[in-house]
Amino acid sequence: MIPAKVDVLIGLQWGDEGKGKIVDCLSSKYHIIARYQGGPNAGHTLTFNNSKYILHTIPSGIFQPNCKNYIGNGVVIDPIVFHNEIMSLQKVCPWIYDNLIISKHAHLILPTHRLLDAAYEQAKGKDKIGSTLKGIGPCYTDKISRQGIRVGDLFQPNFKTKYQELVQRHIALLKILEYPTSISDLEIEWFSACEIFNKFNLAESNFYIQNAINNHQQILAEGAQGSLLDIDFGSYPYVTSSNTIAAGACTGLGVAPRQIGDVIGIFKAYTTRVGSGPFPTEQDNETGEKLRKIGHEYGSTTGRPRRCGWLDLVALKFAIQINGVNRLIITKSDVLSTFDEIKVAVAYEINDELITHIPYNLETIRNIEYKTFKGWKKDISKAKTKNDLPKELFTFLSFIEEYTNTSIELVSVGPDRNANVWLNN
Ligand code: GDP
Ligand code: IMO
Ligand code: MG
Fold it and tell me: What is the pLDDT of residues 188-243, one digit of tens each?
């Protein structure tokens, strides 16, 4: 029998591409949905039966009663956020205590990580990253500097000492950053939230996914954030602190590169970004406002308005290459239905030269070359089959496929689980 492969689903832009919705749609085809990086900075929205759920730490397969959900070693968990998520889901997902498995190797976000996040942002002033302030950067910093605390440490006899030592170091740093601190209330809540881990199956070793592969389980790795927020390949320093690209699934779950199967890339029909940093196709004007209004572009985690702009094919092509995407899914085309004209960036202009790659410094881009498409001016939100989609939309999709040399298999036309048009059988 051919050994099972792990498929990976990732966002190809600056996050919020609709990953949660698509993972939920695909989850009935998989035995396990596994998160491999990020933490409560993520906000993945799922909509079905007229209800909306936003997941931060928990994988988006949790609503499928027959699907296991795994939080991998590469994820960082804030026990308080995690506890609140469980509380809000346990009624709708009574199977949650059986179906959710957590790696003992995942790192814990401490209350002082959140304070440090805020302190660093404050110190950066106008150059701030625009972090979600969930403690992500400081937690990954401690992981890399080999002083982090992991889920498994909660059950070790020296846990309290380890915690205190790390917190003292954080407090010293907060003093240097002149950030006022009072952690006693936060600590009480944090320790109480940590009790929740007693109710779950914790994966003892990093072999959970390898065992599942050996048992021919179909696995989908669910990425958080987007490729342009990747710590190595994103718009540094305006990025998150993990490898969001498909390669992150190898280290964040314990999967060998040769065990990766399909790489499913999700992108919006336009572009959004929350937080600071360059955004070449941003429309800081009426067009951007219209996209935000129709697309309800407000952060799922922080509620901040998302910056909006046209689809950037130069960046999309790069993201497809760096991830090895072989299956493309487009979301939110329905948001463009009232536009007379729709634009896509096909090249950047730097020093009077047109380039079709991402430059070292995105701020040096002077101009954007756009291709303009005629809008379809037809509500597509009820479309079920290819025949329900207008020809102008196909012209738009064909151009994207040609430019990126990758075919689009699914057009998502609304937030609901069932609002999808499959282009191939
Ligand atoms: P994620 O972080 O990638 O999971 O995306 P978010 O959940 O943060 O943001 C995507 C938003 O768009 C959510 O509110 C979804 O319900 C919504 N959404 C997803 N797909 C579609 C679509 O095809 N059309 C519309 N109109 N909304 C969508
Ligand atoms: P999902 O999984 C969109 C952005 C923040 C900020 C930068 C660093 O829902 O797509 P961090 O909190 O990681 O230190 O923030 O990254 N960011 C996201 N933007 N979607 C997300 O997740 C994001 N997670 C982080 O806005 O610019
Ligand atoms: Mg999101």
Answer: 999 999 999 999 999 988 899 999 999 999 999 999 999 999 999 999 999 999 99
Residue bearing the CA closest to ligand 2, atom 6: 131
Class of domain 6-106+202-264: alpha beta
- The mean pLDDT value of the chain amounts to 96
CATH architecture of 108-196: Orthogonal Bundle (1.10)
Q: Which ligand is nearest to the CA of 19?
A: 1
**Domains 6-106+202-264 and 268-422 belong to one CATH topology:** no
Prediction pTM value: 0.97
Our answer on whether the CB atom of 234 is closer than 6 Å to any ligand 2 atom is no
- CA distances, 239 to each of 12, 228, 405 (Å): 14, 7, 27
Instruction: Confirm or reject: Cβ of 196 under 6 Å from ligand 2.
Output: no
Look up residue 98 and give its two tokens. 């059986």
- C-alpha torsion sign, points 31, 7, 264, 53: positive
Q: How far apart are CA 241 and CA 232, in angstroms?
A: 9
Q: Is the CB of 44 under 6 A from ligand 1?
A: yes
Q: pLDDT of 275-284, one tens digit each?
A: 999 999 999 9
- For ligand 3, a single-atom ion, which residues have Cβ within 5 Å? 16, 43, 300
| CA of 15 relative to ligand 2 center, distance in Å | 7
Structure tokens at 164: 């205190």
Between the CA of residue 80 and those of 33, 122, 207, 262, what are the distances in Å?
22, 23, 27, 34
Pocket test for ligand 1, best of 14, 26, 45, 47 (most atoms within 8 A of CB): 45
Nearest CA to ligand 1 atom 16: 415
Q: Report the CATH fold assignment for 268-422.
A: Adenylosuccinate Synthetase; Chain A, domain 3 (3.90.170)
Within the chain, what is the greatest distance between any pair of CA atoms?
Answer: 66
Confidence of residue 302 (pLDDT cuts 50, 70, 90): confident
Distance CA 224, CA 116 (A): 22
For the chain, the domains span: 6-106+202-264, 108-196, 268-422
Q: What is the mean pLDDT of residues 4-26?
A: 96
